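ENTRY TYPE: protein
CONTENTS: sequence, structure tokens:
***
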Amino acid sequence: MLEKTYNFSEVEPRLYEVWETSGAFRCGVPEKFQSGAEPYCIVIPPPNVTGALHMGHALNNTLQDILVRFERMRGRDVLWQPGMDHAGIATQMVVERQLAAEGNVSRRELGREAFVDRIWRWKEESGGLIVRQLRRLGVSCDWSRERFTLDEGLSKAVAKVFVQLYREGLIYKDKRLVNWDVELGTAISDLEVVSRETDGHLWYVRYPLEGREGEFITIATTRPETMLGDTGIVVHPDDERYQGLIGGYAVLPLAGRRLPIIDDTHADPEQGSGAVKITPAHDFNDFEVGQRHNFECLSIFDEKACVNENAPEAYQGMDRYEVRKKIVQDLEAAGLLDRIEPHRHMVPYGDRSNSVIEPYLTEQWYVNAGRLAVPAMEAVKQGDTIFVPRTWEKTYFDWLENIQPWCISRQLWWGHQIPAWYGPDMHIFVAHDEVEATEHATEHYGKAVTLTRDEDVLDTWFSSALWPFSTLGWPDETPELRRYYKTDVLVTAFDIIFFWVSRMMMMGLHFMKEVPFHTVYIHSLVRDENGQKMSKSRGNTMDPLEFMDKYGADALRFTLTAMAAQGREIKLSEARVAGYRNFCTKLWNAARFCEMNECVVEHDFDPADSTLQVNRWIAGETERTVQTVTQSLEAYRFNEAAATLYYFIWHVFCDWYLEFIKPLLNESSQQERDETRAMAAWVLEKILVVLHPMMPFITEELYQRLVAEVTGNKEMLINAPWPQFNKTLQDEAADAGMSFVIELVAQVRSVRSEMNVPAGARLNLIIKEAGADIKNRIERHKGIIERLAHLGGIHIGGGAQALSGSAQIVLGDALFLLPLGETIDVEVELKRLDKKIQKAQGDLERIEKRLGNEKFVEQAPASVIEDNKEKKEAAALVLAKLLGARQRMSE
């Protein structure tokens, strides 16, 4: 017998261990091959080895798990390939901080080999917490195939890719600007840069004009310290203020360097003074301008952002912020500081170090991403890979059409060390290993020489770009690679379309000659209930582990699924998770009801043979629900699948069907009881099967207790077949009959609620006008209608007198009357409704006024506008209901 209360904290860990130890998550099992099962593969977006589960992870992995459980039950040979990313910067920082906390030597004092060894020890002991947390969520990855981006196989793949791309001329060294993290001493990617709006200043500096005594060109800058690296000035070609200066020169204050003044549309006449100083070595836009006009690229900072020897001696060795103060003081003393204005602008910070990022001119390794982007764009244009929703294809194309060379080197020790060695004259030898590099060097120099390996490591995204095929064994021709590549769908967030999705497309097409996946599903962002981005500084973060501890993994999973509408952000609140915990309780109680009433699964039961209208109706409803859920999951409409199941289980099955059959289970003939028990058990089994991908734990527990144990079937629900129907259970007469009953009962309940009828009052229902079909339905289901609508009786006729003091219900061609005159005080109820209507009108008018305010609409975040629109719809619905109730009361 099922316990009165579902204990998820006991069930979830127990069942997960059963699934995993039984091999339920494994791909390529013999029975799948024997049945000729089609492969289905998803590669997990590898979480960082330092990571912990957050709501984005919970959503992403829940949706993947739904797909793999769904396809596994449909008979596919499913591989959900798991693994972790070595997370170069994050992991190195963790261990460096650990060393500091323990009072040990620094990384450089420890030495590279010993430091990397220390990281590996940390990884084995403490890394991968998130994998254990993913198990807590119930994800069914094939953990026997878990990979790591620094494991031996992936390292072999990375080396092969680097060497081949280098030899093809697609990897090269170049001196360009990078995002330089001064604190970490390394280049970082755009993804690792966070721009923050900051209160700063605009310093307006007078640059003396050469040959024009006492004349200046005034230039506004947010970073006066970089002016020591100025090599030119640009003005807009149409800016009349500066036409006479184009072609001349200005003199750089404090340095005396001549600066050519030229025209370029980069200058914006509306910004600052309209004239822009060009510092190619310290600004990305200036670098592009400098490249166009052959300006000198003069770097005045070292890797610590201290002024180097390229600046006047008075400033050398000073930190970037110290030199800013010194320069401003010197400009003011020289009479060259025109004015200072407060200015709010965006400042880039490193997301790991939290230090201000410095554009830095340095030699790095690059990939010619422009060449690799061409086939990656063409594949999406041809439909080889599609984005869901399709609107994200524009983001993908915008990035690839304007792609810059990809900086792949990082000044770190944790990661794939670049497979390049340098000879005595710095000649580069790129090879798969040192032995091969030595052979090439000996051939090149004609003798043995000492080689020095490049100290840099590769950008983490470089190894991640190979993930869909390196995890399957490439560059070896493994059976898994042949069977599961290309993979089926990638589930990810929009913010890594640039950094990961596009690069996987490039690498997959270049090395496998085929796209890595046929579908890219871009899921929504999870925000708080007010639509705000979650952050520790706001104090609005939500920990999925806390929610699972409090409400269970199933409740959290179903909440995220139900809210995962394509193209819409998820506004999550604890109340929603609590609500779906109640859904678990509803299902558990329904299962207990079936068990207590001896509703047992009969494997030879055919629902098409049912004779009772209520059973034929529920069979058809079940068939329709399964078909809708199937179609929704195939189209990645997770929220629609969840909504369909929620409505069917809570309302159709629990609220209506189980209420309908209570008399049948106790007061009907043996044949009717047997049919109804078998039907209830059949429907419950189908519910458990179809709900399983979304709520795997409670469904497996109920399946084992009510199906497997009772029938002797040892199969687990995770391996049960997905139901297949061909509209053989649809019965129009049964649908029409039971739909009529539901609608009539709902209308009576609505009237009772609207009119504030006391719960204990048993009203009579009078049939004023009705055809033969309606009368037959009333006769057939009279007992159900009276019980569920809480009626004293159902009567035909009543004459004109019955209209007096009665609420009218029109259903089809029938008119029903509910006499209320003796039950309620109409005048009192009208006054009550008038007060509610007045309040509802006020609420709606306030929202409409807010949305009608142009300033509010222009300045408010999109999430706030959307929230107000939803509130307006809800308020309008409440008002309409109240007005309808008043109209009914007045009549």
